[in-house]
What does this fold into?
Amino acid sequence: MTRTSVQAGLPPKPRAAVVRDALGVGTAVGLSGFAFGVTSAGAGMSVAQTCVLSLFVFTGASQFALVGALGTGGNPLAAAAGALLLGVRNAFYGLRLSQLLGLPAAVRPFAAQWVIDETSAVALAQPDRRLARLGFTVTGASLYAGWNITTFLGALGASALGDPAAWGLDVAGPAVFLALLLPMLRGRSTAASDAAGTDAAVPGGVADQRPIATTGPAGTGTSGGTARSTVGSTVGGTPGGTPGGTARSTAFPWQEAAVAALAVVLALACVPFVPAGVPVLVAVLAAPAVLAVSRLRARHSSRRSPRHSSRRSPRHSSRRSPRLSAGHSAGHSAGHSAGHSAGHSAGHSAPRSARRSPRGERR
Amino acid sequence: MIWAAIVVTAAGCYAVKLLGLSVPAAVLERPLVRRLAALVPIAALAALIALQTFADGRTLVVDARAAGLAAAAVALLLRAPFLVIVAVAVVVTAAVRALTG
It folds into this structure.
């Protein structure tokens, strides 16, 4: 694969650096399990239920979604369905990681629980399999430990507070989701329309990766580099078929915004008519709806003015140029956190050199 | 029933993770699938924010939660760390409740 070219002619990356980055991400995000513990207890979950969620679900956005829905008296199965929808992206991380880590079949069931945004971001940012395994393991272990310990402490603390609503704790969930959503709406996710890339846009794994990684100590280490790698691979084009995929699936930021807006409208509109928990499921239909509309539009406009027409069509050119759009959103992602763009570095040659420099520049 | 939801979510989330590690790449690599996988969480998150901020049972209300969320948005735009964003939302909501309550 392109892995060989990635490795060519560059000094080996020290294991210590990988461990340091992984531990940084792991502890920083692990600490924010506290927010989940507090929110969960505030939503009426017992300490045991809260801890079981962190131990066995272990993907933050889903956990927040579940306790939020249950807290408002939602149908438990609808609540679970909503939480599962947020967990789907982990399958796409797993897809990337299975190629990268090359895990034996016997190990996969054990590694699977750690397949979340942060571990994927760290693992995919490594130049070779050995370091990727190291990064994945160290991030996974530190994050799993931290997330569960702080969940427990948060749940205990919140229980001691009494009525959670009086303390405003019921708004912690929406605030978390907002922190997860905004970066996606800025189009950062679109820079990497690559599998892992796109989905890391939802840092929800353990919900807080994005904000933490942006500001956290280790986050900055990986982030600048992977963001740049996206620029390199998206704009420059890379071997391995990504350019085609990128062009076809290139996201226009308006799609993200349209999906979010439509989802909000759908969800709120059906609140009076369906049981709690169901509005989220209805709102999720915004995604295929917007995708279908944009496909229709694309087909329509391509029929009118063929893609490679030598005649320029100023009205359409800006909207229809995937390259332009990719470059634009890649610019957005520069300097931001590791998650989404890390996917790109897995298979491409550009990332590595780009990745190394920010390490040096880091304060 | 809460335990049922927890078990279903835990089992489902784990299955999804394992699925990604186990299926052949071609299945999930199709652009449409990837695009949907990127947009579905956006829809879910946006809906959850709206519902948990404005829904009260089966009615829609604008209350202290909206103020808290707005404060969180400001903190977010100012690039505050994650825990600060959450704390700001919680504190503002509690303050508005205390003042209006």
Chain A has 23 helices and no strands. The radius of gyration of chain A is 21 Å.
